[in-house]
Amino acid sequence: MIQLDPNYAVSDIDTLERLYGAPAAASVKKEVAYVHPQYRKFIEAAPFVLLATSGSEGMDLSPRGDSAGFVRVHDANTLLLPDRRGNNRIDSLRNILHDPRVALLFVIPGIGETLRVVGKASIHLDPDLLTTFCVDGKPPRSVLVIKVEAVFFQCSRAVLRSSLWDHSRHVARDDLPSPGKILAEVSDGAIDGLKYDADLPERLKSTMY
Q1: What is the pLDDT of residue 115?
Q2: Radius of gyration of the chain (CA)
Q3: Pfam families given for it (predicted)?
Q4: 3-state secondary structure the chain
Q5: Sheet holding 78-83, edge to edge
C-alpha cells in the first residue's frame, strides 16, 4: 500500500486554483438563483435525488426516490420534497433542524447530465400540504420546503466515465453481500440475516408508502 505524504496535501486556495485553472465561461453562466424553465424540466423528469445535509453530528447524504417529478416545483424559488417511509433514523431531518442548508443532486435514468440545487430547507406538517402528496391514500410524514439559492446542471463526464446506464456493465445482485448478510456480520449475529433477507421483499412491498 502506498504511503500518503502529507507534504503533498493541498491546504490553500491559491495552490488549488493554480492546479485547476479558471472555470470555463459556460460553467459559470449555467448557474442561476432560481428554477429556470429549462431546469424545471429536469426536476420534473427525475425519479431519484440525493439530499445532502449537515448537522451537529456531521454530514449526511440520503437517497430519495419516487415517481418522476415527485419533487414538486412550487414556484421558481421553492421546491417541495415529500419525506416518504424509511428507516426512521431521520438523519437528514435532524440535520436540517440544526442547519437548514441543503444540496440536492437530481438523477434521471438514461440521461448523462444531472441537476444540482442548493438552498435552505424547513420541515412542514400542514395536513393540507401532506394530502397533496398522497400515494395509495397515504400521505408522507412531512414535506421539506426548500428555498432555492442556486441551480445548475452538471455535465455528463462522470456518468459517461462510470458507464452508469450501460446495462452490460451492471453488477449482478448476487455478486455483493445481501442486506441480511451485512446486518448479521456487523451486528455479530444479533440480527438473524437469513430471516431478514427472507422477510425483506414482502416488508418492502408493504411499507413502500
Answers
A1: 98
A2: 20
A3: PNPOx_N (PF01243)
A4: CCCCCHHHCCCCHHHHHHHHCCCCHHHHHCCECCCCHHHHHHHHHCCEEEEEEEECCEEEEEEEECCCCCCEEEECCEEEEEECCCCCCCHHHHHHHHCCEEEEEEECCCCCCEEEEEEEEEEECCHHHHHCCCECCECCCEEEEEEEEEEEEECCHHHHHHCCCCHHHCCCHHHCCCHHHHHHHHCCCCCCHHHHHHHHHHHHHHCCC
A5: 58-65, 48-55, 101-107, 114-124, 142-154, 78-83, 72-75
Q: What superfamily does domain 27-162 belong to in CATH?
A: Electron Transport, Fmn-binding Protein; Chain A (2.30.110.10)
**Looking at this protein, which amino acid is placed at residue 77?**
N
Q: According to CATH, where is 2.30.110.10 located in the chain?
A: 27-162
pTM attached to this predicted model: 0.95
Confidence band for 24, pLDDT divided at 50, 70 and 90: very high
**Beta-bridge mates of residue 153:** 115
Q: Supply 135's cell numbers.
A: 400515494
Given this model, what pLDDT does residue 75 score? 98
